Structures are given as C-alpha cells and as structure tokens.
C-alpha cells in the first residue's frame, strides 16, 4: 500500500468495502512474508464507524511454521483502530496431523503483533482472558466454514445446477429500497471448482478477495439483517474452463455482503462454504 494503515484509518470518513479488502490483503500478504507461508483468506468481519472500527479475518496455511513441528496452521488476524492509534495482532494455531499443538497448555497460540509497519514475532502466548481459545482443538476450529449443499446430488447436463446457501445473519427483503442507506447487497463467487481428476481450478479465482465488479460475481440486491433463510443460486451462470460438462465436481464458494445498520456505520462480512460435491450426468 502507498499509504500507511494509520493514515488510511485516521481520516474520520467511513471506508469502502474495496478499501477494507485492500487492508485485509495487505496485512495477510505481510504475514505470509513473515511466516514464509502461502495463506488462504477465509471468513472476515468488518465494522467501520468512521473514527473507530476494525476487522477480524480467519486464515489458514498448509505450511509448517518455522522451528515448530506443525504441518498446518490457522489464524485469527484482527485490527482495531480509533482516532489515536491502530492495533493489529495475528494469533496462530498450529496443527500436526489435524490436532492442535501447544508449548505449555490448552488455548495457547503463536503470536505476531503489528509494529513499525511489520509483523513482529512474539512467540508462544496465552490470551488475556481465560478460556478464550481453549475450544480450538482440531483443524477447522479456527478457520470455520458455512454449511452449503446442492438441491440434489445429481443434475442433468445442460440444465441449471442449484446450490442452497444459508443466510445466517441477514434476509433477502424485497420491500427494501436499495437506494436508502439502510439497505445492502451480497454476492457469491467461486473460490475453487474442480472436475473429476483434473488437478486445477476451473474458475477464474486469482487468490485475491473478489470485488463487486469482478468476473463471475452473482450479485443479490436488497439484503438486510433478519432471521435465518437460504438463498438459491444456479452455479452454471459462472463460466469455467471446459464448461459445465458431465462429471463429478468439487466446489468451494465465497459469500460477501455489505450492510449499513445506521447512517454512520458500515458492516462488511464474508463466509466460505464447506466443500460441495455434486455430479452432472448425461441425459
């Protein structure tokens, strides 16, 4: 980034979702350099009230953290700010064969803090409050996913392929006016699409968090907080390499949404789906 985090976050103005995506990706990219690891970004939450706010993202890496016996790790990467300062921390949970590792006890994590525009390695640490991370026992406990499913397991070739996505914290509301500041939007995009034994991603996913005008975005207007519901999408609207020809498919998807519960507050959120398996068959 050309600007420092403090200069971006000290403007007093509410920042756009695009700006927050740039901030999240910048900190994760710097953490990737500090840990010598390739990192995937999962769910994230952003709250921006102009002079105060922050984000928390869940990330993972199929790498060993240096000088440890781990073969995989997950982390909570969080930033908070006010009109005086910016704080950021990365709390890494290390795993070996799917089980969490620690140096001295449950709830322990490997700690990095943001200092002088870089991630500083603080080594093993415990949270300030008791029991905060003791629930982290196995891979997936920190980098959690949203349970999604196909309408049926098998689909006919050249026909729509429908997936249901649970809307855990918001509701499609056709009565909302999308021009008002109290309305929002959400969109769904592919992270990974594989077919049969092809060892490559068939989608256009680049590794970056998608923005609203990116290719392969399915956008839904008039989203707001509400009771749990499901949204139904036809994944064949996405263009993939080779097209949606017959075969067995493995998919991971991302949902993002923006909402403004108050005039001076913005919420941005993203979920990652559990792996989805389905088959397209010849008629």
Estimate percent helicity.
Answer: under 10%
Oligomer state equals single chain
What is the residue-averaged pLDDT?
84
What fraction of the residues are assigned to beta strands by DSSP? 35-45%
Radius of gyration: 20 Å
Number of helices: 2
Q: Give the total of domains.
A: 2
Pick out the low-confidence regions.
Answer: 169-182
Task: Please provide the ordered H/E string of secondary-structure elements.
Answer: HHEEEEEEEEEEEEEEEEE
Number of strands: 17
The 3D shape can be described as globular
The major β-sheet equals: 14 strands, mixed
> Structural class, judged by helices and strands?
mainly beta
End-to-end Cα distance: 51 Å
Give structural attributes.
about 280 residues, mainly beta, 2 domains, 14-stranded mixed beta sheet, 2 helices, 17 strands, about 10% helix
Topology:
Elements: H1 5-9, H2 17-35, E1 40-48, E2 53-61, E3 72-81, E4 86-96, E5 99-100, E6 109-115, E7 118-125, E8 149-150, E9 154-156, E10 162-167, E11 170-172, E12 184-195, E13 218-225, E14 229-234, E15 247-262, E16 265-272, E17 276-281
Parallel strand pairs: 9-17
Antiparallel strand pairs: 1-2, 1-16, 2-3, 3-4, 4-5, 4-6, 6-7, 8-10, 10-14, 11-13, 12-13, 12-15, 15-16, 15-17
Question: Could you characterize what this model shows?
Answer:
With 283 residues, the chain is mostly beta strands. It folds into 2 domains: 5-125, no CATH class; 149-281, no CATH class. Helices cover 8% and strands 45% of the residues. It has 2 helices and 17 strands. The strands form 2 sheets. Strands 1, 2, 3, 4, 5, 6, 7, 9, 11, 12, 13, 15, 16 and 17 form a 14-stranded mixed β-sheet that branches. Strand 6 (109-115) and strand 7 form a beta hairpin. The N and C termini lie far apart (51 Å). The relative contact order is 0.16. Residues 169-182 have low confidence and may be disordered.
């Amino acid at each position: 980034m050309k600007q420092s985090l403090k200069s971006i976050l000290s403007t007093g103005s509410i920042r756009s979702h695009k700006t927050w995506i740039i901030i999240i990706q910048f900190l994760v990219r710097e953490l990737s350099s500090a840990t010598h690891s390739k990192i995937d970004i999962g769910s994230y939450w952003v709250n921006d009230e102009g002079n105060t706010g922050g984000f928390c993202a869940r990330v993972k890496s199929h790498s060993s953290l240096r000088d440890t016996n781990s073969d995989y790790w997950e982390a909570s990467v969080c930033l908070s700010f006010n009109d005086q300062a910016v704080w950021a921390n990365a709390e890494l949970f290390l795993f070996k064969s799917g089980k969490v590792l620690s140096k001295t006890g449950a709830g322990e994590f490997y700690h990095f803090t943001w200092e002088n525009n870089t991630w500083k390695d603080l080594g093993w640490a415990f949270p300030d409050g008791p029991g905060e991370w003791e629930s982290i026992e196995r891979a997936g406990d920190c980098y959690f996913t949203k349970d999604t499913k196909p309408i049926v397991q098998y689909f006919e070739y050249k026909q729509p392929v429908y997936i249901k996505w649970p809307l855990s914290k918001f509701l499609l509301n056709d009565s909302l006016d999308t021009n008002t500041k109290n309305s929002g939007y959400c969109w769904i995009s592919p992270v990974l699409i594989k077919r049969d034994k092809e060892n490559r991603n068939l989608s256009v996913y680049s590794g970056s968090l998608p923005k609203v005008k990116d290719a392969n975005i399915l956008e839904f207007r008039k989203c707001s907080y509400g009771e749990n519901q499901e949204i139904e999408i036809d994944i064949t609207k996405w263009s993939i390499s080779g097209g949606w020809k017959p075969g067995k498919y493995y998919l991971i998807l991302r949902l993002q949404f923006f909402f403004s519960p108050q005039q001076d507050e913005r919420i941005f959120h993203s979920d990652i789906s559990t792996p989805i398996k389905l088959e397209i068959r010849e008629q």
